Structure formats: C-alpha cells, structure tokens
C-alpha cells in the first residue's frame, strides 16, 4: 500500500501549486505564467520522484526543503509582480497550510487507519480540493484586494508564516517522520493546533485592514462627491448671477444701439463676454468635470500656484463618476505636494484630450527634489496616520474599472500622472469643445 502514500504525496504537491496560484500575482500574462509554472514545477516533481525512487521516503522527506520548496520559491519569485514580504507571505501561506494538511492526514492514518495509507490517501484526495474551494470562495478576492490596498506591515505576517513553516517541517520530519517518534506526537499536535489560532489571528488582522481600507475609500468617495456638488452649486449660483446681470447688460446695449453707437455696443458686448468667461470659470462643456476643475482651481488660487490647462473634451457621454474620481484624487495629491514647496515653485498643468480611441489625461506638477518614482511603481505616502496613501490606488482602480491604465513617474523635478481610458466610440467624441484649452495663466493670491 506504499503506492497510495507516494501518490498522495505528489497529489499534495500538485495542489500546493494550485493553492499558491490563487494567491499569486504574476508580472507575466496568464498563459505565460501557466506554461512557466507547469514546466518548472513539472521538472521539480520529476526530480522528487527520482529521489523517492532511488533513496526512499525518509530521504525525500528530509531533503524536501531543498528539492522542492527552495527551487519553487526562486521560480515563482522571478515571475511574481509582488516582491519581498508580500510574496514571502503568499508562498509560505500556501506551503504551510498544505504541509499542515499532510501532517494531520499522516497522523490520522497512523492512529486511526492502522498505518496502511488508505485513510491518508482518501483524506488527502478530498482535503486538497476542499481547501482550494474554500480559498477561492472566501480568501482569494479579499487577499488580492488587500495586496493592492496595503503597502506596509507585511513583514510581521510574513515572518510569522515563515517561522511556522520551518517549525512545522522540523516537528513533522526531523530527525524522522513524526509517526516514528510517538514521544513527540503530543508536542506536534499542539503545534498543529497552535497554527490554526496563529492563522486565525493573521487572517483576522488582514480582514480588519481590508475593512478599514474599504471604509476609508468610501469616505474619500463621499468627500469627492461633496466637493463636486459644492462646485456645481457654486457654478449654478454664478449662472443665476449672470442671468441677473444680463438685464443690466441688455439695457445698456439697447441704449447704445438706440443712439446709433454700434461700435461702442460691439466693444461693450466683447467686454461682457470676457466678464462672463471670467465669472463662470468654464474649463470644459462637461458640467461634472468642469465642477471638479472649478473646485481645485479655487484651491490652487489660494495656494498661489501656477495652473496651466489644455482640456479638449466636448459634451460627450463620459463616465463622469470614474473620471471625476481620477481628477479629484489627482488634483488633491497635487495640492498636497505643492503645499510642501515654496510658493515660487508651485506649478501644475493638466492635459485632457482624445488620441485615437483613447481619452488621455496627464497631470504634471512640481515635486520635492528627493522624490524618485520609476514608471510602474506606486510611491508610498510619507504622511502619518492610516487615512493617507489611497489617492493613487483609487485612481488606478477607477481607471481599471474603465478598462484603462494608469502610470506615474518623476521626470526633471516633476511628478507625472498619466491615465488612459478607452473612448468606446462616444457620441461626438471627435468634436472637441475647448474651455480654456491651450491656455496658461498665473493664479494669483
């Protein structure tokens, strides 16, 4: 019946890969990841079969760390989009949970199944698919979301998981398999029980972090909506004021035309037009996006910042919720960055235009001299407290909801945020309506 034991071992090894891939974020495409993982782990499994065939089970159990764990760690680390502690936690989590199942089924078979490996084989056959279902159903989505949301604090959890992996390997396999050391069984069982509470603590802490992140995201969205509504209200008040002032403008024009002063009436009309443009602060024809720019133009004015804009969008049916979220977070980050600079260095430019089938947004602002961000990175916030550091994450999530992309990097002392989202053949998207497009003005205090 030893064949049942050997089959169950490689069944477990196969499902460790499946479990890890659920928690793993590759920097390659799904197809390349599957091919690379299949080839790499296939070779490792073949090598372990050879070790088992030539040297036996005891030798394999002692050398397993070097014949499988470390090589697989290197393979997936090369492919991983996450590095350091995030990757270490995911890797050790999959390995330790799988090793825990193998240890429990090994003890059950020895004490309840008579050591004939039938109970081991049947229990592992059922336990690993059940484990994968539970991981897919309850763990995968919040775990991946948490990896995007939380940038710091992974070292403690990764260290705990790695330590338990080493502890479990030592308790189960050294100096011999635990079933050959009855005197150590009670200690091994205590370690197995303690691991359940340990992972319960880890998952509870991670879940609370996720709930906190979601709460802060919701609060940020509500704040953005509040700012947008306030800007819209201000815009509506300006419109009502213009309607009121129009009566006086009409009376003056009527008087000039009655006296036959057409040239004076034309000059007066141009002055009225300039005054209306200044009063309403029109950036673009879209009322939602215009409201966002109005709000942050006011904030930048108070800061004495130089604000340049090139906004070339019309009255198309734009996904204003996501775009307003992108612009609000981007410009809020700009205000935070400029607040730490001298007034003469406070400058920002915004470009928003169509390019083929995409709507392109670029926000460029001065930043501190020691800030260095490579393209593809998300810089960590340097603010204290847990309610910071979500702006770029929110922008990235909003862009991805529109099937778009976000990039940020530093260049020549400027922080640059690029967002590209598909236009999806929007009506009238080819007819750009300019507000103050291609303009440059100094916002004075």
SSE class: alpha+beta
Spatial ordering of strands, largest sheet = 4-5-3-2-1-6
Radius of gyration: 31 Å
Major β-sheet annotation: 6 strands, mixed
What distance lies between the first and last C-alpha atoms, to the nearest angstrom? 85 Å
Q: Count the domains.
A: 2
User: pLDDT under 50 segments (min length 5)?
Assistant: 383-389, 425-445
Mean pLDDT: 80
Morphology: elongated
Content of β-strand: 5-15%
Order of helices and strands: HHHHHHHHHEHEEHEEE
Estimated helix fraction: 55-70%
The total of beta strands comes to 6
Give the number of helices.
11
SSE inventory with pairings:
Elements: H1 2-23, H2 30-55, H3 57-79, H4 84-112, H5 118-149, H6 154-173, H7 185-258, H8 262-280, H9 287-303, E1 306-311, H10 320-339, E2 347-355, E3 358-366, H11 391-401, E4 405-411, E5 414-422, E6 439-442
Account of the protein in words:
By secondary structure, the protein is an alpha+beta fold. It has two domains: 2-218, no CATH class; 282-442, 2-Layer Sandwich (Heat Shock Protein 90), CATH 3.30.565. The chain contains eleven helices and six strands. The longest helix is centred in the middle third of the chain and has 74 residues, at 185-258. The chain is elongated and about 115 Å long.
Summary of the model, kept short:
By secondary structure, the protein is α+β, with helices and mostly antiparallel strands.
């Amino acid at each position: 019946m030893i064949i049942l034991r050997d089959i169950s071992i490689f069944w477990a090894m196969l499902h460790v890969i499946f479990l890890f891939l659920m928690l793993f974020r590759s920097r390659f495409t799904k197809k390349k990841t599957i091919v690379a993982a299949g080839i790499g782990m296939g070779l490792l499994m073949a090598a372990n079969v050879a070790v088992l065939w030539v040297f036996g089970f005891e030798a394999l159990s002692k050398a397993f760390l070097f014949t499988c764990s470390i090589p697989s760690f290197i393979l997936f680390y090369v492919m991983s989009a996450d590095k350091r502690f995030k990757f270490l936690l995911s890797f050790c989590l999959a390995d330790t949970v799988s090793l825990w199942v193998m240890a429990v089924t090994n003890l059950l078979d020895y004490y309840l199944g008579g050591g004939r490996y039938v109970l081991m084989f049947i229990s592992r056959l059922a336990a690993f698919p059940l484990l994968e279902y539970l991981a897919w159903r309850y763990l995968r989505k919040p775990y991946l979301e948490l990896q995007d949301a939380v940038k710091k604090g992974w070292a403690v959890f990764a260290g705990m998981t790695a330590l338990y992996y080493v502890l479990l390997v030592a308790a189960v396999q050294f100096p011999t398999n635990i079933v050959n050391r009855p005197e150590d069984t009670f200690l091994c069982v205590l370690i197995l029980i303690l691991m359940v509470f340990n992972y319960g603590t880890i998952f509870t802490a991670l879940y609370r972090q996720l709930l906190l992140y979601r709460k802060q995201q919701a609060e940020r969205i509500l704040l953005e909506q509040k700012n947008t509504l306030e800007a819209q209200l201000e815009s509506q008040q300006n419109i009502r004021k213009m309607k009121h002032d129009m009566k006086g403008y009409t009376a003056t024009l009527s008087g000039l035309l009655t006296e036959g002063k057409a040239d004076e009436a034309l000059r007066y009309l141009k002055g009225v037009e300039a005054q209306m443009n200044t009063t309403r602060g029109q950036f673009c024809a879209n009322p939602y996006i215009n409201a966002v720019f109005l709000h942050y133009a006011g904030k930048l004015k108070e800061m004495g910042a130089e604000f340049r804009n090139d906004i070339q969008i019309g009255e198309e049916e734009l996904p204003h919720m996501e775009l307003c979220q992108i612009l609000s977070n981007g410009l809020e980050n700009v205000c935070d960055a400029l607040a730490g600079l001298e007034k003469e260095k406070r400058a920002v430019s915004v470009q928003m235009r169509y390019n083929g089938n995409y709507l392109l947004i670029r926000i460029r602002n001065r930043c501190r001299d020691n800030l260095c961000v490579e393209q593809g990175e998300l810089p960590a916030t340097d603010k204290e407290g847990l309610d910071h550091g979500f702006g770029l994450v929110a922008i990235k999530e909003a862009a991805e909801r529109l099937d778009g992309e976000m990039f940020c990097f530093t260049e020549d002392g400027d922080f640059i945020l690029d967002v590209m989202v598909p236009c999806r053949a929007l009506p009238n998207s080819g007819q750009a309506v300019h507000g103050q497009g291609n303009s440059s003005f100094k916002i004075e205090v």
